[in-house]
Design a protein that fits this description.
The protein has one helix at residues 2-22; strands spanning 25-32, 35-37, 40-44, 48-55, 64-67, 73-75, 82-88, 92-97, 104-110. The chain contains 1 helix and 9 strands, in the order H-E-E-E-E-E-E-E-E-E. The strands form 2 sheets. Strands 3-9-8-5-6 form a 5-stranded mixed sheet, with no helix packed on it. With 111 residues, the protein is an alpha+beta fold.
Length: 111
């Protein structure tokens, strides 16, 4: 019986490690009086990535966010996180910011 429990424990650990390795990376960004913070984010290539943006100030031009290559503006309601799926990232840079491009940030992807 102890061997069976040990086997299930090993299997359970390996399954949870595999699930963690495949889970998407979530990058937290806030819209504050200082703009998008952090102003740049470094991450690794080849992993499913989600940008989670929360607008924390009422008066801002960033009531929407535009992500380069997405081709649309996404509403940012006050104090509610919005997830933007970026997919698997290749080496390079993805810029995002307000529609007037006055407040900008970027995800920098390294191999």
């Amino acid at each position: 019986m102890k061997k069976l429990i040990a086997l299930f424990s090993i299997i359970g650990i390996s399954v949870s490690v595999a699930s963690y390795a495949e889970s998407p990376k979530v990058i937290e960004v806030a819209v504050t009086d200082d703009g998008f913070t952090p102003s740049s984010i470094k991450t690794e290539a080849g992993k499913e990535t989600t940008l989670r943006v929360t607008r924390k100030v009422k008066e801002t031009c960033a009531t929407k966010v535009q992500v380069a290559n997405k081709g649309k503006a996404i509403d940012l309601p006050l104090n509610k996180p919005v997830d933007i799926k970026l997919g698997k990232l290749a080496k390079g840079e993805i810029k995002f910011g307000c529609g007037m491009e006055m407040m900008m940030s970027a995800v920098i992807i390294a191999e």
